[in-house]
Write a structure and sequence with these properties.
Blueprint (H helix, E strand, L loop, with lengths): L1 H13 L2 E2 L6 H28 L11 H29 L4 H10 L7 E2 L4 H10 L1 H11 L6 H9 L2 H9 L4 H19 L11 H47 L2 E2 L8 E2 L5 E2 H17 L6 H12 L2 E2 L1 H9 L4 H15 L1 H10 L16 H8 L5 H11 L8 H35 L3 H15 L12 H26 L9
Parallel strand pairs: 2-5
Antiparallel strand pairs: 1-6, 3-4
Protein name: Oligosaccharide repeat unit polymerase
Keywords: Membrane, Transmembrane, Transmembrane helix
């Protein structure tokens, strides 16, 4: 954790993008306090396992049959889950999923303006698809014992994160699963095993996956920039219509015990949105906008309030670096490092934030609140606070996310629990054969590596992945403990 944050702060200080005044004294102080909470909690978590659970080291290994059955079940659940999500989004929703997802990436504030159909399949799929992440990790950790169909399905489970990324026009789900893969390798090495299970050509497949992700990341960024440029006139129209509807909506003083709340405004039908997107694309294709470094850099300054450093501008001007290459490289660098500046912004606006109790990080909660608790204004209040602080749509880092979700005291507790789980799982993976600590350790290591971007519960619905890992690990360990009780003499209560 310490090395990762020292590296990130150094990259922000000297990297290709100039973040004015960053890392600031405020950022350095917040990071230092966060580490001062996390690291002792890590030691405490290790001590708890060593003292209370060390006897589990003598527990028998789970049967190969049980391990294969659980791995196969997790794989199938994940694959079925992402299939249900895809069916709802692409067929039953009534909207062109690719255009809808891209439009919300360009203008996330329009999410409540567009009426799309949501069926129970979507929510069922959300509960299930995260098991695909677990299946991949479980296969990598126990690939020597997982064979046949279970091994094939474990590798096929990569469709869950890839499908999720494609459906929502994102990159983080794929990045997250690749980081999980890397952390599973690290756990194997720490246990004195090979980097990957032998056979299955896993090293080659991993290299191909990383290469394809690099290509996909570049392609989706270019596609998003082009689409957002084409949709600028339509986005302006939709936002103007939204503002007019909001201004004309009367307040209902009888709602929620006399507390005035705005009545729901009318929304745009999905079929109408599809037609307007097609029309906007036709207009823009008739008059294409040329893109160049000269056009990109001012947009970068306006949107992000940053500029490339002199050595980057010089490389572009001299022709050593292409405008397209600069755009992709700088945007990716900004994507992964701008959270440091967010810490500073959040601290300066700290009095304007109210605790969100997980709604900020756990992405699945926002749509559930919008649909099933429409009288609640928590999502609207949260978005208003984020917009007022000018961080809406930006990554917060683990430290800022903890504060936004739980306040100052809650953030301290949150980081302490995170550190304790890290220590507990590290000790458990080293001193016992239990699966829950190993799965948790992979997750925690991934969350530590990605902490400059998001909190442990905020990465591509990682909260659901965490729950799936806990369920899978506990099922295996419960079977393991039952086997130990059966095998231990005197484990059964004698008849009197």
């Amino acid at each position: 954790m310490t090395l990762i944050w020292l590296g990130v702060l150094l990259f922000v200080a000297i990297g290709p993008i100039d973040y004015p005044g960053q890392p600031s004294v405020v950022v350095l102080t917040v990071v230092a306090i966060g580490l001062a909470i996390f690291l002792p909690s890590y030691r405490g978590g290790k001590l708890v396992f060593d003292r209370w659970f060390a006897l589990q080291a003598r527990s028998p290994r789970p049967s190969t049959r049980m391990l294969n059955n659980v791995a196969m079940f997790a794989s199938l659940v994940g694959i079925v889950g992402i299939t249900l999500v895809a069916l709802d989004r692409t067929v039953l929703s009534g909207v062109s999923n690719s255009s809808y997802a891209e439009l919300l990436r360009c203008a996330p504030g329009l999410v409540d303006t567009i009426a799309i159909k949501r069926t129970p399949l979507l929510y069922g799929g959300y509960v299930m698809f995260s098991f695909g992440f677990v299946s991949i990790v479980l296969f990598l950790l126990k690939g020597e014992e997982i064979r046949g169909w279970a091994a094939a399905l474990g590798q096929l489970s990569i469709v869950s994160p890839i499908g999720y990324a494609l459906l929502y026009s994102g990159r983080m789900p794929i990045l997250f699963v690749l980081v999980l893969v890397a952390m599973a390798m690290l756990v194997r090495v720490a246990q004195g095993r090979t980097l990957l299970p032998r056979g299955h050509y896993l090293l080659l497949k991993t290299g191909i996956a990383v290469s394809l992700f690099a290509v996909y990341s570049s392609a989706i960024w270019s596609s998003r920039q082009s689409f957002c440029t084409q949709m600028l006139p339509l986005i302006a129209e939709l936002e103007q219509e939204k503002n007019q509807r909001d201004a004309s909506v009367a307040y209902d003083p009888a709602a929620s015990g006399g507390i005035p709340r705005p009545k729901p405004a009318e929304t745009i039908a999905a079929t109408e949105l599809n037609k307007r997107i097609v029309e906007a694309q036709k207009v823009q294709q008739a008059a294409p906008v040329a893109s160049s470094a000269d056009a990109f850099l001012p947009k970068m300054l306006m949107a992000w309030n940053v500029m490339p450093r002199g050595y980057v501008t010089s490389a572009i001007d001299s022709g050593r670096l292409s405008a397209r290459g600069a755009m992709i490289g700088l945007s990716t660098y900004f994507y992964l490092t701008h959270g440091v500046r967010t810490i500073d912004i959040v601290w300066k606006a700290r009095d304007k934030f109210t605790p969100q109790w997980g709604v900020y990080e756990i992405g699945v909660l926002s749509p559930l609140l919008r649909i099933y608790f429409s009288n609640s204004d928590q999502v609207a209040v949260m978005e208003a606070e984020l917009r007022a602080a000018a961080i809406y749509g930006f990554f917060p880092t683990a430290w800022a996310a903890a504060f936004i979700d739980f306040g100052l005291v809650g953030a301290i507790i949150y980081v302490a629990i995170w550190g304790a789980v890290a220590g507990w799982s590290a000790a458990g993976s080293r001193h016992s054969g239990l699966m829950t600590p190993q799965l948790l350790l992979v997750f925690v290591l991934a969350s530590v590596l990605l902490s400059p971007v998001q909190g442990p519960l905020g990465m591509a619905n990682s909260a659901l992945v965490l729950v799936s890992m806990l369920v899978t690990g506990l099922v295996l360990d419960f079977a393991k403990l039952r086997a130990r009780e059966t095998a231990t003499p005197g484990g059964n209560t004698p008849a009197i």
